[in-house]
Design a protein that fits this description.
about 300 residues, mainly beta, 3 helices, 18 strands
């Protein structure tokens, strides 16, 4: 063995002494799921389901109404029935073919039955004519949608074809007294014209047609059931149209107008004598006079409205 080689047995290598020791390995133990967290998770899930159910109950059905035009109608407009807001317009946009306007609306929960097949919707606009006055409140106020409910028991629906003008026919009234009025001509009367008693609307004209021999006009009137007892065999009916003016040399000028409504559109009025006759059945016929006699206007019979028998 050469002399310059020295055997270092039992001595530590200086290079290995300077090397850092290997770090200890971390042992990761997976944590087990604690049942303690199950209670709040279930509570949050139950609360979410309850809120979702509550929101669903507080929202009514969403419907779509298609109009040919809808000027002045904007999102947020009301849907009104009998003077009560029953829904709100959510969106107004053109149809895909650009031929109409599609209105998306949401009804209130208490008005869910309005979303039934046969319901009629129309945009209320100001209208003043010789036969009709309506929508005056929309001259300065916002436009809104009016609705006539569908017949009872109609199936549910979500899409409707809106009307361009309000329906002229009067809505059917259950148990109404139906009368037949005959006149030489119809004048400015139309379906929907009111029937008045002491200037109070108690019914309406339902239909107007020529007689079979075309010698006169036949009008079908419907009296609301609560006022049917006012109509007797000796009652007298006449046309109310505008304002009547009578001039006499000794009695001077006499001006007569039944009501503000009759100044703008024609109506039918009737009176019953102080000694009322028997009550009438459906389809009883009366002649319709052009104007009342003076004594008709003085009749003042006490007739209980809720009497079932004479």
């Amino acid at each position: 063995m050469p002399d310059d080689v020295t055997e270092n047995r039992g001595e530590t290598n200086p290079v290995s002494a300077l090397s850092p020791p290997e770090p200890p390995l971390a042992r990761v133990t997976p944590r087990r799921f604690s049942l303690v967290w199950l209670v709040p998770i279930l509570a949050l899930a139950g609360l979410g389901a309850l809120l979702f159910h509550q929101l669903g109950r507080e929202r009514g059905p969403v419907i779509e109404i298609t109009f040919t035009r809808a000027e002045g109608l904007e999102p947020g407009a009301d849907i009104v029935h009998r003077g009560i807001t029953v829904g709100v317009v959510r969106d107004v946009r053109l149809t895909d073919d650009l031929a109409g306007v599609r209105v998306t609306a949401e009804l209130h929960p208490h008005a869910t039955k309005l979303a039934s097949e046969g319901a009629q919707f129309w945009v209320v606009r100001p209208e003043v004519s010789l036969s009709r006055i309506a929508g005056i409140e929309t001259i300065l106020g916002p436009r809104y949608i009016a609705v006539r409910p569908a017949p009872e028991g109609a199936p549910r629906a979500r899409t409707f074809a809106g009307l361009d003008t309000p329906p002229t026919d009067a809505p059917p009234v259950e148990n109404a007294l139906v009368l037949t009025l005959t006149a030489p001509r119809v004048g400015s009367l139309a379906p929907g014209s009111p029937v008045l008693f002491r200037d109070v609307p108690v019914g309406s004209i339902r239909d107007i047609a020529l007689a079979e021999d075309a010698t006169h006009v036949t009008l079908t009137a419907a009296i609301d059931p609560e006022y049917a007892t006012l109509v007797r065999e000796n009652s007298r009916f006449w046309v109310v149209s505008g304002m009547g003016v009578d001039w006499g040399l000794f009695r001077g000028l006499s001006v007569r107008a039944e009501s503000l409504e009759s100044l703008i559109r024609s109506a039918v009025s009737f009176a019953t004598p102080n000694r009322p006759g028997a009550r009438v059945a459906d389809r009883h016929a009366f002649e319709l006079a052009d104007a009342p006699r003076d004594d008709w206007l003085e009749w003042d019979p006490p007739i209980p409205l809720h009497a079932t028998e004479d």
